[in-house]
Structures are given as C-alpha cells and as structure tokens.
Amino acid sequence: MNKKLLCAALLGGLGLAHSASAQEFDDRWYLTGSVGYNFQDDDRRTSDAPFGTIGLGKFISPNWSVDGEINYQNPGLRSASSVQGSNPDLNWSQYGISFDFRYHWLQDGRTWNPYALFGVGYQRSEEEFDNFPSPDSPGEREDGNFAAKVGLGLQGTFTNRVAVRAEVALRGDFDDSSYAASGSQDWAGYPHNQSESYFTDLLASVGVVIPLGPPPVAPIVAPPPAPVDNCADRDTDGDGVNDCDDRCPNTPAGTTVGPDGCPVPVTIDLRGVNFDFDRSTLRPDAVAILNEAIEILRRYPDLRVEVAGHTDAVGTDAYNQSLSERRARAVYDHITGAGIAASRLVGPTGYGESRPIAPNTNPDGSDNPEGRARNRRTELNVQN
Predict the structure, then answer these.
(1) Using CA atoms, how far apart are residues 210 and 202, in angstroms rounded to an integer?
(2) Which of 133, 188, 305, 331 is most buried when burial is the number of CB atoms within 10 A of its CB?
C-alpha cells in the first residue's frame, strides 16, 4: 500500500472527530497503551505486522506532554517460496523504547484536540537469515540503533478517567546492517535497495491514556473583597468635612460648620460699635471693630448677615426708628465699601428702641446712661 495515501486517509478520518468540550491541563502521571499496524519499509523485505506499546507520561505544561514507551512488533520475512533457498519460517522481530514529545492544540468546546509528535529512541532488531549450506544455518543478527519519529494525532478528554488517542507516525530506524536489505539476491516481486542505511516505517495506532490518581481539584477562588468604603475620601454634603468625621451628614449647603461637620454659631462681635447720643456717624473706635468683622466675612465667603441698627429709649418711636435705620446704613455702607458683596448682606434694617440689650432706666425709674449707651448699637446677625 502506498504510505502517502495511507497517511492522508488516516488523518482525514481522524479529522472527522466531533466537537464538544476542551481538554483541560491535567498534570497527573498517566499510563498509555496502544495497538496498531506497522507498515514496514519495503527495502527491509519484511511483512507488515501489528504492534503494541505501553508507556508512562504526563503533561508538563498546558500544551506539552512527554511520554516514555516501549514497543514491540514481529513482522517476519516476506514469503518468497519462488526464490531458491528462501525460508518463510525465519524470524524477524523488533522492539524498542522512545521518548515522545507531543504538542497539543487545545481549544475550548472540543472533545478531540489535535497534536504533533516528535520522538527519539532506540530500536533493536533480531533477524534470522538463511545461511545455507553452513551447518550454522539459519544465521542470526541482533543489533540496536538510534530511531526518530514524527507524526500527528488526536487525543480526547479524560472521560470516565480514560482518554482515547489516535495517531499516525513515521519512524526512522537507522539500521545500516540488515542482512535482508543488504543481500545480493533480489526476491521475486520485492525489489529493494541493497545499500539502505535506514528504514522508514509507517505506524498507525489507537490507544488509551489512563491518568493515575484522583483528578486535580480546582482551587477555590475566594470572591474579590468588597470595595472598602473609604469615608475619608467622601464629603457627601459638601461642607468641607469628610464623611468619617462628619457628625451632621446632611448639613444644608452654605452652612458654616465646625470640625465635626455640625453647624456652629459664628459670632461677629460688634461690641464697641456704639454711637454717640442722637448720632449715626461711626466713631474711630467703631471703625476698627468693623474692620475686624469684615475680615471674618472674608474668611467665611458663604456667610450672610443682617445689618441691624438700634437706639435707646429716649425720643419718640418714629424718631428712634429713623435713627436706627441711619445707623444700620452707616455700617452697611462701610462693609460694602470694603469689598463685601451686598448680596451677602440683609438690610440695612432699623429696629428703633424695640430690642434693647440693657435697661434704659434703673429699677427706681431713674435714668441709666450706661444701659442706654449699650442700646445705641448696630449688629451683624448671622443668617446661615
């Protein structure tokens, strides 16, 4: 049979394997065994014969496996009864060992995955030959030689602890002293090269791969840790205090807060911004105090205040109302003149004598100049 046509037929048939699931990387040691047919090189003048192998191997990476195996075949000499002196009962057998590297093309979704085979080894031949008329006939030759192998195949997954392997390969046996191949006599119908220094045999086989030990257990992958809720990086209410430290997380926008995120009263102390009796003109000492209040307003740009003016109880209500408004206007104009936006100020508002902070008279009804002086004032009342 033509070996090239046989290779093509076998590989074509193997290519019909259906798809299902991909072989996964399994690094257990495994036993291998196969049976097949050895199509002998014609120049050997031996018969084609079945062969068997047994071996041990493992995957050394997701794609590479290495096997060591021994093989045996007993082809025997081809029958040539038409040739004078030929003896079809003469023995001719082979056995050897090889180390085979296979590269597997794995793909998810396939039951069968193709591979390429590269192997090196040692083949030993035991040959009997007709040594007539010598009394030592038949003669014997035993010799071992280097061998190399290349091939292609398909391997299935480890279903029920067994994988199936189908393979075709060419093995080069570098035997340069074969008696049958170097004989001077041409056997009828079996031409050969008498100077052959190596032989190329075609091997077609089907085998099994049996892993040793329990299948590997997939490592338990812990779920990724939940994202850390880093409150130190958040300021939900936008008050400038991170959520870890903010004890008042829902502070309205623009509220002045302390280090704990809670609203704090901002007191703008205008004590000393008092007016002379029946006057609305700012005194020099009052201007200095107002300038300090202006710095506070600059430090807190979201702060809004009401400019309020007050009087003592001397005079009519109407007069005192007008006087308090003038006093509030004097403070208002000074603050806006210093660059504070009018949108941050409420007023100016006059309250007349209606909101005293000190008694205008003593308990006995007599005048209380000191109390009246405190009531002649302006205030900046914080609105947020």
Answers:
(1) 25
(2) 331
Residues 98 and 34: their CA atoms lie apart, in Å, by 14
Q: Please say whether the beta carbons of 327 and 309 come within 8 A.
A: yes
Q: Which residue has tokens 């082979």?
A: 94
CA distances from 131 to 127, 193, 299 (A): 12, 21, 120
* CA-closest candidate to residue 198, choices 171, 216, 220: 171
Tell me the fold of 3-79+86-211: Porin (2.40.160)
Contact between 262 and 247 under an 8 Å Cβ cutoff? The reply is yes
- The domains of the chain are located at 3-79+86-211, 265-382
Angstrom distance (rounded) from CA 127 to CA 22: 45
* Distance, C-alpha 263 to centroid of its chain: 46
Q: Which CATH superfamily is domain 265-382 in?
A: OmpA-like domain (3.30.1330.60)
Residue in the structure block whose two tokens are 């901002």: 266
- Do 265-382 and 3-79+86-211 fall under one CATH topology? no
**How far is CA 86 from each of CA 82, 125, 131, 191, 294, rounded to the nearest angstrom?**
8, 20, 10, 15, 128
> What is the C-alpha to C-alpha distance for residues 113 and 307, in angstroms, rounded to an integer?
88
Per DSSP, the three-state class of 346 is strand
Question: pLDDT tens, position by position, for the chain (384 residues)?
Answer: 445 444 444 444 444 333 333 445 778 899 999 999 999 988 877 889 999 999 999 999 989 999 999 999 998 777 544 344 455 667 788 999 999 999 999 888 788 899 999 999 999 988 877 666 666 667 788 889 999 999 999 998 776 678 899 999 999 999 877 776 665 444 444 444 556 678 999 999 999 999 988 877 777 888 888 777 777 778 888 878 888 888 888 877 767 677 787 876 555 656 656 666 767 777 787 788 888 888 888 888 888 888 888 888 888 989 888 888 888 888 899 889 889 899 888 888 898 988 888 898 898 988 898 888 888 888 888 877
**53 near 69, Cβ under 8 Å?**
yes
pTM: 0.50
Residue 300, both tokens = 């807190």
Q: Tokens 């084609």: give the residue.
A: 48
The single-letter code of the amino acid at 56 is: L
